[in-house]
Amino acid sequence: MAYYLHRSPWWFHHFETLSNHFLELLVPFFLFLGRRMCVLHGVLQILFQVILIISGNLSFLNWLTIVPSLACFDDAALGFLFPSGPRGLKNQVLKMQKEDTQGVQSKPRYGCMVRQVVNFSLGILVAWLSVPVVINLLSSRQVMNTSFNPLRIVNTYGAFGSITKERTEVILQGTASPNASAPDAVWEDYEFKCKPGDLWRRPCLISPYHYRLDWLMWFAAFQTYEQNEWIIHLAGKLLAGDAEALSLLALNPFEGRAPPRWIRGEHYRYRFSLPSGLHAAQGKWWIRKRIGPYFPPLHLEDLKEYFRTREWPLPKPHPDTS
Hints:
It is a multi-pass membrane protein. This is Lipase maturation factor. Involved in the maturation of specific proteins in the endoplasmic reticulum. Belongs to the lipase maturation factor family. One of its GO terms (cellular component) is endoplasmic reticulum membrane. There is one protein chain. This protein has about 325 residues and is α+β, with helices and mostly antiparallel strands. Among the domains are: about 110-160, no CATH class; about 165-310, no CATH class. About 40% of the residues lie in helices and about 15% in strands. The protein has 13 helices and 8 strands. The chain has helices at about 1-5, 10-25, 35-55, 60-70, 75-80, 90-100, 110-130, 130-140, 210-220, 230-240, 245, 280, 305-310; strands at about 145, 155, 165-175, 190, 190, 250, 260-270, 285-300. The strands form 3 sheets. It has a 4-stranded antiparallel sheet with strand order 4-3-7-8.
């Protein structure tokens, strides 16, 4: 669905933005406006998260957000899901509730008053502690994933501090050529389980599952390999034909033969093809343009010192590695 939503007309994107602001800034206050508005809040929030699930791959984040919204629905709202016959679960619950409420009116309301005072006091405390959070929210130098007091009752958290407008990807390539600089060297792409790579592969839906390596590769494309040294560690394991590392990938182009002599990282800019365009007619979901090298061609022998200085275990060469 992300492909088609991305290529929607401009007015639909404006509607999406307006709806997003309405659902995230105004709808939460429905919780304080009575039972019906509270139920409406739950319906709108769950619908919003479902739309995010089918249009993106944010793993389990949206599913976790649905959980607190379930508390918006009381027994009356969910009663239609259960049979109402004489022996049905709904009828049994109603009998239990009647038995529990007998004689309640004669009991003092002291406990109810105490609960109201505690709730009001907690509300005041959270509001007071939230002052620096709100100031941070309105600041041009907003910080993410930070707690503002030792109790960690209030904080700023989120998966993303900012959103990019372009999709860049690191594509790992290997070659069996003895000379990585040779013009006739054939470079073959490694494919990951879900992140963009093969132009003809349809975008996948993995939510609520989480492919950690694909996720890290996405963030590595925002920076350099010096800031993400783990990607060199991965390259070394692929050069050695490490079975555990290869199990994290969808396609090993060297399966059934010796591992590559060289591996390099290429930096590409990806975008969706136009539904009625030439690339889409060829079956391509993606169009990509090379930005430049991400890291230069690496040989397993050349990485030994790099691994030692970082106290990484040296990958054991595959028996077919020459």
